[in-house]
Amino acid sequence: MPDEVWRRTQLVFVCSPGNPAGNVMSLEEWRTLFELSDRHGFVIAAYECYSEIYLDEDTPPLGSLQAARRLGRDRYTNLVAFSSLSKRSNVPGMRSGFVAGDAALLARFLLYRTYHGSAMSPVVSAASIAAWSDETHVQENRRQYRAKFEAVLPILQNVLDVRAPQASFYLWAGTPGSDTAFARELYGRTGVTVLPGSLLAREAHNANPGQGRIRIALVAPLDQCVQAAERIAHFARTSI
């Protein structure tokens, strides 16, 4: 982007691991973003709710605070990271999470939340403490997602442009033609719901970055994911 745009920028929202593609920002990409923030003064809001869903148990994705520390930015200037129990512990309805980072920004955020936020009930607070304090169920969660990817990918890779993500529980699959038409016809003929990629973005500079792709969420039980993948594969082979 031109410097004129960066000079007007107040906030950059980053989702890493990303939704829908599951990409993870590298240390060099974080370095570039931090340097731009230092130069132009904007705040970086890092949404990291997929950070604990990844395929390689020995290689967790790099987080924003971790990247900042590696680069000697232990004051986390102009950086705030948001996380949640919703993906890590499969409890999206609890609306339980945290924000961490630049102490000066968090002091203002706390004041804002005092007036515009709401307190958790004691029940949700107790459940949150239990979930944040336990890693066993998180590891089991990742194991189940790995099993789904291992079962589903060979079925879909024969008919669609799709690969395993770096993190998250989505597949970001290419479609031969319109993503909206593919999703609509797939649902009509098989009952399987996927999200058209073009609905996750908007057109800019005569292009939509999600066009021609669908997001497949592997959140159902393993047998249902396999059955859905087989229906998608059959639809792709016989209808296109």
TrEMBL record:
Every Aminotransferase class I/classII large domain range: 8-232
Keywords: Aminotransferase, Transferase
EC number: 2.6.1.83
The keyword Transferase belongs to this UniProt entry's keyword annotation: yes
Domain of life, per lineage: Bacteria
One Pfam family, short name: Aminotran_1_2
Cofactor(s), names only, from the UniProt record: pyridoxal 5'-phosphate
Transferase keyword on record: yes
Top-level class of the enzyme under EC nomenclature: transferase
Any GO molecular function: pyridoxal phosphate binding
Residues spanning the membrane: none
InterPro entries the UniProt entry points to: Aminotransferase_I/II_large, LL-DAP_aminotransferase, PyrdxlP-dep_Trfase, PyrdxlP-dep_Trfase_major, PyrdxlP-dep_Trfase_small
Record protein name field: LL-diaminopimelate aminotransferase
Organism: Bordetella pertussis
Name of the gene: dapL_1
